[in-house]
Automatic annotation (TrEMBL):
The keyword Cell membrane does not apply. Reversible hydration of carbon dioxide. It comes from Asbolus verrucosus. Its EC number is 4.2.1.1. GO terms for molecular function: carbonate dehydratase activity; zinc ion binding. This is Carbonic anhydrase.
């Protein structure tokens, strides 16, 4: 990954999703106050300047995260490859291997401009090491695909189900939107 706001080469390290209990919340970014059902983060690290992800995460230009809004709508074929496996993962800590080719580029909305800014990770340690690229247009995912995420359990098999408001399911795993502070957001129109 290079170009646009990126002066160096970045390679995909991992991707993950944040989602809400309902389809009107779950994204960690908003556009003019509008929230989305979820947000996919494709986390890249700077391979031009740094030798490892851990090293890159210590520097302001170390990581680039592509943020893609998820909107309830039609089924996303590429996401099916993931949600099909999630139904086999019953408890926290369990894993499954994706046995088919997965193209993360298919999660990027076509013909979408983006917003970019220098910011932080949204999960601990929340380091200020991210060049954010947040696409303007959401990608559609089906309500069933969203429910697959919401059906993941938040506890390990050997643990008791927590008596929480979500009965042990992973819901609202997003960081609330924070004030911009002195951050400057730039817009790229497509």
């Amino acid at each position: 990954l290079t170009g646009g706001p990126l002066e160096h080469n970045y390679i995909l390290e991992q991707f993950h999703c944040h989602w809400g209990e309902t389809n009107d919340q779950g994204s960690e970014h908003t556009v003019n106050g509008e929230k989305f059902a979820g947000e996919l983060h494709l986390v890249h690290w700077n391979t031009t300047k740094y030798h490892s992800f851990a090293e890159a995460a210590k520097h302001p230009d170390g990581l680039c995260v592509l943020g893609v809004f998820l909107k309830a709508g039609k089924r996303n074929i590429e996401l099916d490859k993931i949600t099909a496996l999630l139904s086999k993962i019953e408890f926290k800590g369990q894993t499954a291997r994706i046995g088919v080719p997965l193209n993360p580029g298919l999660f990027i909305p076509p013909e979408s401009g983006y917003y970019t800014y220098q910011g932080s990770l949204t999960t601990p340690p929340c380091s200020e090491c991210v060049i954010w690229v947040v696409f303007k247009e959401p990608v559609e995912v089906s309500p069933e695909q969203l429910m697959t995420f919401r059906s993941l359990k938040s506890y390990c098999k050997e643990e008791n189900c927590p008596c929480d408001e979500f009965q042990g399911f992973v819901k609202n795993n997003f960081r609330p939107t924070l004030p911009l502070g002195k951050r400057e957001i730039r817009e790229c129109r497509q």
